[in-house]
């Protein structure tokens, strides 16, 4: 995964790279954290929960894990990485919940 993302980042040049993790397919929250971290170390500018078409998409739990990975990565690297939730956000309340999560975890 790391080398594939590095290659894609190199091909992007100055364009921003968004990596879709398909969190519902990763099997555990530990794997979500690891995939998030690897994607960021490889140069991803944004990490995205899913395409929105998987059976399991953006959940607040996986969002929390991804936010923690982003925060930990920032502490080590000083580089800010964006988060993009996709799938499962259907109501205004869903959006508010995600805004609160990101505000509380990432500022």
Can I get a quick summary?
The chain is mainly alpha-helical and 107 residues long.
Describe the structure.
The structure is a single chain. By secondary structure, the chain is mainly α. The chain is 53% helix and 8% strand. It has 4 helices and 3 strands; from the N terminus they run αβαβαβα. A 3-stranded parallel beta sheet has the order 1-2-3, covered by helices on one side. Helix 3 (60-77) links the parallel strand 2 and strand 3. The longest helix is centred in the middle third of the chain and has 18 residues, at 60-77. It is globular and about 40 Å long. The N and C termini lie far apart (29 Å).
Produce the secondary structure layout.
Elements: H1 2-12, E1 18-20, H2 29-41, E2 46-48, H3 60-77, E3 82-84, H4 92-106
Helix pairs in contact: 2-3, 3-4
Number of extended strands:
3
Helix content: 40-55%
How many structural domains are formed by the residues?
Answer: 1
Oligomer category: single chain
Q: The CATH topology, please?
A: TIM Barrel
Low-confidence stretches: none
SSE string, helices as H and strands as E: HEHEHEH
State the main characteristics.
53% helix; 3-stranded parallel β-sheet; 107 residues; mainly alpha; TIM Barrel
């Amino acid at each position: 995964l790391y080398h594939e993302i590095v290659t894609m980042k190199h091909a992007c040049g100055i364009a921003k790279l968004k990596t879709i993790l398909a969190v519902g397919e990763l099997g555990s929250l530990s794997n979500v954290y690891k995939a998030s971290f690897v994607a960021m170390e490889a140069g991803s500018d944004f990490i995205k929960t899913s395409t929105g078409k998987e059976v399991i998409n953006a959940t607040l739990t996986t969002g929390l894990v991804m936010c923690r990975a982003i925060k930990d990565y920032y502490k080590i690297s000083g580089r800010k990485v964006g988060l993009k939730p996709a799938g499962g956000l259907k109501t205004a309340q869903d959006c508010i919940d995600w805004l609160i999560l990101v505000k509380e975890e990432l500022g």
